[in-house]
Amino acid sequence: MAGCHSACFAKEDMPVHKREMPKAKKSYTIAKKREALDLVAVSSELEAATRLGISRRTIRDWVAEKDKIREFTGSERSPTLKGQGKRELFPFFHGLINYMKDRRRAEKILSTKHMIIYIKSNHAGWLANYMADKVSPQSGIHALERACQRFCERYGYTPQKPQSTKKNAETLAVCVDYKLFEIFNVDETGIDFDMPPKRSWAGRGHHDSAKVLGLNKHSTRLTAVITARADGKKMPILFIVRGKPGGSIETKELKKYPKGHVYAVQENAWMDTRVWKKYTSELLKYEVNVPSLLLLDNFEAHISEVGQNAVLEDAIARVVPLPPNSTSVCQPLDVGVMGPLKQLMKSLWLIEDNTGDERAPDQCLICSKRTLAAWELLGEEDVKKAFVKAIHRYHTVEG
């Protein structure tokens, strides 16, 4: 009996092991993975893990599949490489993005209707094939509208009312404490090889339509990163050329480009965290001599922790992100520089002796030279006026 009692007592004293629930696996966006890879490229896996608060093992896994992460063409907010290799619904998505950005830069309304008009005007063949697969014209239009809305969401465009003067004033009030030569603004713009006028003369009737053979107005080949200072000084330009990093374009073609400027190669000719680091370390670093302000839009590569640290470490400058959807009224380059610059480029395009049959790399070179020539022609007074128009009018806030 005693033995039974002691056995039962021992059984009661035995610790009860509760089954632990497995920890939820933390997910990270593609943007965060690219940010970590950029940190590893300039430091180490351990440093990246420490600064971002992510396990070193996770960082190591990302490094192992860095090519897939870099080449992923889906949304940067996605936590996985789902849909890898899947193309955008709009094969002309890069041109569409540039159209949207240029329209907002010109302070024009951008709606789903405007996106559809762009598609109809520039990609009629694609639109005809898209509509042919739909049950009815009504369902086709509805599907296209939803596709445009999802496209906007994917690339950071949201339906918003115009930003109030007060909100812009609060953001830009910091500029009052800085001298003109301490305030910088940077922005990107797509550059097209063909820059034809918006309209063309054509005979009346259907016998002479306004169609132009071989015209590809939105064939953006590269991106120009423009930087200017509030006292009117124009900085060197960073050109982002479409191609594979480390490929023949980077190793051979870039040697032909004009000296005194900075060049980067990216798969889509877009700004990303890696290219942003190149901008701060090879361009901005040598233009900023005192603590300064850098005004820019709220693009992920600009305002991420890595992006802001790069500006601070390389150029002792403070990043001032502008409110969403407000750059057309309070970003100096958008307000009074990009428009005149594009007009100068169009004028130069008219007098160029190009056949249009040049190789793609040669077209990129021509685009860069045209952009630099237009940048040289743009007056410093025009730059100063753009800063005054964008910033100074917000110094007084209405009560």
UniProtKB/TrEMBL annotation:
<protein>
    <recommendedName>
        <fullName>DDE-1 domain-containing protein</fullName>
    </recommendedName>
</protein>
<dbReference type="GO" id="GO:0003677">
    <property type="term" value="F:DNA binding"/>
</dbReference>
<dbReference type="InterPro" id="IPR050863">
    <property type="entry name" value="CenT-Element_Derived"/>
</dbReference>
<dbReference type="InterPro" id="IPR004875">
    <property type="entry name" value="DDE_SF_endonuclease_dom"/>
</dbReference>
<dbReference type="GO" id="GO:0005634">
    <property type="term" value="C:nucleus"/>
</dbReference>
<dbReference type="Pfam" id="PF03184">
    <property type="entry name" value="DDE_1"/>
</dbReference>
<feature type="domain" description="DDE-1">
    <location>
        <begin position="220"/>
        <end position="354"/>
    </location>
</feature>
